[in-house]
Amino acid sequence: MDKELKSDKSAEQKILDAAKQIFMENGLDGARMQDIADKAGINKALLHYYFRSKDKLFERIFTEEAQKFMPKVTTIMLSELPLFEKIEKFMSEYIDTLSQNPLLANFILNEIHRNPKEMIKKIWGSHRPPIEKVEEHVAKLVKKGEIRPIKGYELMINMVSLCIFPFLARPMVQWITKTNDDEFMKMMQQRKKTVVQFVIDSIKK
Prior knowledge:
CATH architecture of the largest domain: Orthogonal Bundle
Distance between the termini: 65 Å
CATH topology of the largest domain: Tetracycline Repressor, domain 2
Order of helices and strands: HHHHHHHHHHHH
Number of domains: 2
Structural class: mainly alpha
Radius of gyration: 20 Å
Low-confidence stretches: 1-6
CATH superfamily of the largest domain: Tetracycline Repressor, domain 2
Shape: elongated
CATH class of the largest domain: Mainly Alpha
Strand content: under 5%
């Protein structure tokens, strides 16, 4: 029984690993169940035994990938840390997650454009991003004169866009900078320092 259970888990994991790669490369519309079965090294009937539809399999993959870092960055932004420390931790976590999952940025962005309401619901569930907490924190510091005037949502957009753009435009970035894959990843690690300092300098008095 234990052996069968272990075998079942192994087969399911092979499917999930294969599906992740296919979905990341092609999105929901471009992915085919036969391609996933071939990638996993199983027949299509077995694939349908574990996951009855492509949509169900996609939902599992998307939710797992999106929620790998959403809870982490949410916790950071809801914390009582000083703002500059929040910025450093938030952007470092974002870049690390995208470095470990290079196709994640394009994957999520493509699916949000395809079905925005459904995709946002899958990422955040019934909760909204903690923008109000950020707004309050930023507004308080602006009022005290500790940072330059800026809206909390503007700060969030600046941070996210600076983190995500190089991954979205990776082929172009690598072509312009004449970097290979390893060099690109090293550049992203260095970028954790430079973009954090850039954002902090933009609001620091």
